[in-house]
């Protein structure tokens, strides 16, 4: 879950620059609690409530630290989504370094425990940016989206030999956890979540997830709490394609998510850090054998 509010998304940035954020209607607390209630009402294969990783924007954490603590208290992992939701590639090296370190420290000060994961705004990473994320003290990044038709998404060359499950071992104890898409012949089809989840028919999406689980053994899904908030304010000055991308099927997202979770109740739902723990353990057991 990428915890940012409705006015902080990249598609709406021209109408809501950062200096206007404090005057906007905050709705993130209510929408995030809706997600928490849904996850808490379901159980996974091991009989435990569903667990997820919440990548929290630093601006939100400073504004509502109680929400960060509530997420942690509910058994979920807290990770960083940066501070101001600026694309990594649009920042200077010093600016990005400060953003990475500031957002991590803020979350750690609120929780009193280490924050291990990072997700770049709009998946805007590169090989160089990954090294900066590692140097900032994170143990994994979860930003690589292989769908190539969105020009904001970063590009990485993934060595299949370095894959451990769906994770990629980048060395020095640092991992990349790519989002899950469906590879069909030479085409990469977007089935990782977000707007693609809202747009595509539920049965089609579920079928693709089953295929990904069959082929890869794990599935990495993402969503934003604002996507379950159909009553959020509307920005009618945005272009028709922008409004379509942001507002399509918002009213259907929550029941659609509930159906998806119920469809995969036979699976184990894990945080990113837990998943990395599983594959490290499997690797150690294989080596021991």
Pairing-aware structural class of the strands and helices? alpha/beta
* Portion in beta strands: 5-15%
Low-confidence stretches: none
Kindly provide the name of the CATH class: Alpha Beta
Shape, per Cα inertia axes: globular
From N to C, what is the helix and strand string? Answer: EHEHHEHEHEEEEEEHHHHH
| Beta-strand segment tally | 10
Q: Outline the biggest β-sheet.
A: 5 strands, mixed
Biggest sheet strand order reads 4-5-8-7-6
CATH topology call:
TIM Barrel
- For the record, the CATH architecture stands as Alpha-Beta Barrel
**DSSP helix count?**
10
What is the CA-atom radius of gyration, in angstroms?
Answer: 18 Å
What name goes with the CATH superfamily?
Glycoside hydrolase/deacetylase
- Name the helicity range: 40-55%
How would you briefly describe this protein structure?
This protein is α/β, with parallel strands linked by helices and 289 residues long. It is built from ten helices and ten strands.
Main attributes?
TIM Barrel, 3-stranded parallel beta sheet, globular, 289 residues, 10 helices, 9% strand, 40% helix, 5-stranded mixed beta sheet, alpha/beta
């Amino acid at each position: 879950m990428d915890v940012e509010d409705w006015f902080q998304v990249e598609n709406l940035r021209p109408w809501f620059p950062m200096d206007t954020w404090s005057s906007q209607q905050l709705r993130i607390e209510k929408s995030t609690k809706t997600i928490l209630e849904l996850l808490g009402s379901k159980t996974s294969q091991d009989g435990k409530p569903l667990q997820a990783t919440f990548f929290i924007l630093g601006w939100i954490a400073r504004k509502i630290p109680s929400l960060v603590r509530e997420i942690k208290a509910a058994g979920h992992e807290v990770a960083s989504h940066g501070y101001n939701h600026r694309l990594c590639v649009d920042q200077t090296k010093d600016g990005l370094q400060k953003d990475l370190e500031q957002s991590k420290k803020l979350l750690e000060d609120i929780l009193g425990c280490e924050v291990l994961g990072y997700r770049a705004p709009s998946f805007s990473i590169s090989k160089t940016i990954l090294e900066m994320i590692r140097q900032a003290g994170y143990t994994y990044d979860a930003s690589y989206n292989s769908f190539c038709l969105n020009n904001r998404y970063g590009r990485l060359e993934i060595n299949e030999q370095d894959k451990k499950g769906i994770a990629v071992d980048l060395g020095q104890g640092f991992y990349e956890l790519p989002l899950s898409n469906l590879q069909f012949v030479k085409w990469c089809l977007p089935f990782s979540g977000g707007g693609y989840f809202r747009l595509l028919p539920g049965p089609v999406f579920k079928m693709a997830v089953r295929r990904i689980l069959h082929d890869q053994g794990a599935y990495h899904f993402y969503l934003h709490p604002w996507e379950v908030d159909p009553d959020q304010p509307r920005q009618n000055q945005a272009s028709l394609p922008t409004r379509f991308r942001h507002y399509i099927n918002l009213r259907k997202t929550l029941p659609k998510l509930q159906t998806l979770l119920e469809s995969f109740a036979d699976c184990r739902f894990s945080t990113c850090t837990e998943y990395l723990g599983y594959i490290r353990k499997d690797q150690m057991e294989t080596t021991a054998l």
